[in-house]
Specification:
Elements lengths: L12 H13 L8 H17 L2 E10 L6 E11 L6 E7 L22 H20 L5 E7 L18 H8 L8 E6 L8 E3 L1 H6 L1 H13 L5 E5 L7 H6 L4 E5 L18 H17 L2
The structure holds zinc ion.
Zinc ion binds next to loops.
């Protein structure tokens, strides 16, 4: 029997799903596209409504293959800015410019909608922002939407430097900012959700991982598996290198990954809610 078990306010899976649909309504959101521009404005507006301070981190990236330049933006919503103890919650908001895993070769240069790979993590964080505004957590929380996660090319000519553009930029411009730890959400909307212990996180941030899985056990959320999953390259890597322990919550077992089939039908409010409840409990457990 645990005394005074921590509690979080209710997470609204339907509201989060509404945020997922809203992002998808802008179409593909790859850097340089109209959908990217409009969605960026939308996200900045939502963070201004829901958080205390918003920082827009703008930068330019030059594609190493095509030579084209793109404007990219990380959106940062700050909750309880005066609190010294801080938790970082992050997701990427951009979507992949090419469906290079699509079964139909004719589709492989077309941009994806990114309902799961893009919108899902952001949608969970937006409902958490709504929760934090209504019921203040004891700690400070920084909600970061990274741009340019999924820009890079696979295979010959592809450079790892063209991936994780936003998190790399963020990690290079930390200044004195040092959150206690971070949680990254990526591909957390799959209807058939299964989140294993991502191997890079387990190696570099085991105590944070234990915190999260403890919350999942308390809440009886079966999507969080005790089994170790594959090592995934994602936005947590630049932060881990910078010395911030960040756990990547990712269900990489998603057959629609980087295909035109990554649409809302493959995702569910229940999956978003499962992840949102666990992350909320972690945050509200902090004193
Ligand atoms: Zn992706």
């Amino acid at each position: 029997m645990e005394c005074c078990a921590p509690k979080a306010p209710p997470f609204d899976g339907q509201a989060a799903y509404g945020e997922l649909l809203k992002q998808c309504s802008f179409g593909p959101r790859n850097p340089g596209s109209e959908g990217h521009r409009v969605c960026g404005e939308y996200l900045a507006g939502r963070l201004r409504e829901l958080t205390d301070e918003v920082v827009e981190q703008r930068f330019t990236h030059r594609d190493s293959a095509s030579g084209d330049s793109f404007e990219l933006t990380n959106y940062i919503g700050i909750v309880n800015p005066k609190q010294g103890k801080r938790v970082l919650l992050a997701a990427h908001w951009d979507t992949r410019p090419r469906a290079d895993q699509d079964p139909d070769p004719a589709n492989r240069e077309k941009p994806i909608l990114g309902a799961n790979d893009g919108a899902s993590g952001v949608s969970v964080l937006l409902d958490l922002a709504r929760m934090f505004k209504k019921t203040r957590p004891a700690v400070g929380v920084d909600i970061v939407f990274f741009d340019g996660e999924d820009y890079g090319r696979e295979g010959p000519g592809g450079k790892l430097g063209d991936y994780f553009l936003g998190s790399q930029y963020f990690a290079r411009h930390l200044g004195p900012y040092r959150p206690e730890y971070g949680i990254l959400l990526d591909m957390v909307g799959d209807k058939d959700l299964s989140i294993p212990l991502e191997a890079n996180s387990l190696r570099a941030a085991p105590l944070v991982m234990e915190k999260i899985w403890k919350a999942a056990r308390l809440l009886n959320v079966p999507a969080f598996k005790q089994a170790q999953g594959p090592a995934v390259s994602d936005d947590h890597i630049p932060l881990l290198i910078a010395g911030i322990p960040v756990v990547d919550l990712i269900d990489f077992d998603y057959p629609r990954w980087h295909t035109l089939g990554d649409t809302p039908e493959a995702t569910s409010p229940a999956s978003l809610e499962a992840v949102g409840r666990v992350v909320a409990l972690v945050v509200y457990s902090e004193k």
